[in-house]
Amino acid sequence: QVQLVESGGGLVQPGGSLRLSCAASGSIFSIGDMAWYRQAPGKERELVALVSPGGRSNYGDSVKGRFTVARDNAKKTMYLQMNSLKPEDTAVYYCNAKINRRDTWGLGTQVTVSS
């Protein structure tokens, strides 16, 4: 069974940093684009960052210049380095990936930015 597991969420003060990880496991033959999404209470899920198998990345406008996405194909893992965090970054962060050509989601990890 293929699964994605996020880790690294938590409580951080405004201006602080966190690093999220997303590890894929199971019977995996291919991993295409990997992405981070987030969903805040009462809001729609939004794209935070996407990284292609070759390392090309795209970001949502609200996180450009503050967040950096990366992946380690050998470890089947994606990362999200989040700097200069703001209260409006508070959300559940979800990992998404095309694994074996199927859209796969993790269960999410909570990020709370508050003083």
Strand content: over 45%
State the major sheet.
Answer: 7 strands, mixed
Total beta strands:
11
Elements, N to C (H/E): EEEEEEEEEEE
Enumerate how many helices there are, as a single number: 0
**Stretches where pLDDT falls below 50 for ≥5 residues?**
none
Shape: globular
Please give the radius of gyration in angstroms.
13 Å
Distance between the termini: 40 Å
**Structural class, please?**
mainly beta
Summed over residues and divided by their number, the pLDDT gives a mean of 97
Into which percent range does the helicity of residues fall?
under 10%
Textual characterization of the structure:
- The chain has strands spanning 3-7, 10-12, 18-25, 31-39, 46-51, 57-59, 67-72, 77-82, 91-99, 102-105, 109-113.
- It is mainly β and 115 residues long.
- The strands form 2 sheets. Strands 2, 4, 5, 6, 9, 10 and 11 form a 7-stranded mixed beta sheet that branches.
Summarize the structure.
This protein has 115 residues and is mainly β. It has strands at residues 3-7, 10-12, 18-25, 31-39, 46-51, 57-59, 67-72, 77-82, 91-99, 102-105, 109-113. It contains no helices and 11 strands.
Summarize this structure as a short list of keywords or feature phrases.
115 residues, four-stranded antiparallel β-sheet
Topology:
Blueprint: E1 3-7, E2 10-12, E3 18-25, E4 31-39, E5 46-51, E6 57-59, E7 67-72, E8 77-82, E9 91-99, E10 102-105, E11 109-113
Parallel strand pairs: 2-11
Antiparallel strand pairs: 1-3, 3-8, 4-5, 4-9, 5-6, 7-8, 9-10, 9-11
